[in-house]
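[Automated response] Your request has been received and processed.

Submitted sequence:
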Amino acid sequence: MQLTAEAESWPLAQAFTISRGTKTHARPVVATLGDGALRGRGECVPYARYGETVESVLAQIESQRAALESGELTREALQAALPAGAARNALDCALWDLEAKRAGEPAWRLAGRPEPGPVTTVYTLSLDTPENMGRQAAANAQRPILKLKLTGPEDLERVRAVRAHALAADIVVDANEGWTPEHYRKLAPALADLGVTMIEQPFPAGEDEALDNLDRPVPLCADESCHDAATLDALVGRYDIVNLKLDKTGGLTEGLRLKARAAELGFELMVGCMVATSLAMAPAVLLAQGARVVDLDGPLLLAQDRDHGLRFEGSLVHPPEPALWG
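Generated structure:
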């Protein structure tokens, strides 16, 4: 077994802004495991919000080189060898990909899942002025689900502008931890009146107890507060939906566990992504089957996707071909 890990940079079609800042490039890390004849790949996105950098993720991947190249590090052993996060995601998904290619079987079958079908993804509108977000909505009014990045001031005006230009679209909003309880009390009922069907992570992770005394006129989704399956119990009664991202679970192996545990606890599921290429989205399509909300539009935000990328028909995303992953 041979391991390589490389940082990449993919220009975005246009600058993308959330409450924490603006980016013009996606900067994923790709881990490749090869045995000479076959190779498996996994893509992750280091996220500063969780204390990750490209350099730290590459170092974590490198720390497993000896165990990987000797064949000692199985997917199950990897769960203990690295914490949940981007580095483990890249290696876990690369191991799944290589295992599928060695077996001549698709990853979904190895995982004991039904054959995946196409799913409808949201299309995300970058945080901007109400006027500019209205223009973004008008340009994408044919899409069935729009996701709005919000931040606090002028959020109601932003949603009104989008609704005015996309009358038929379902709307979900993501505050990225940017609201206060006072802001929430004012906004949530008004967003319900505008037909918003989900609010994602209104408050900073670690402050979820503030939701204990607040009404939920719109279903709430935990993102930054939800990482691996062990984080779910603390969210019961506070959120209706949890956002499963492979870069938070640390790969497909733990993602499958989180999905099963979330169902046991009565949560609905959102399957999300970072801004990245189709290689990062491919394993998530497996998890997105039956999810209430699918947010796998990362490749649509790029100026160009990688070869053999996922096939999109508008907002419909098809499962990956083996040349990409799995």
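Summary generated for your ticket: The chain has two domains: 2-110, 119-317. The first strand starts at residue 2 and ends at 7.
If you did not submit this request, please reply to this message.
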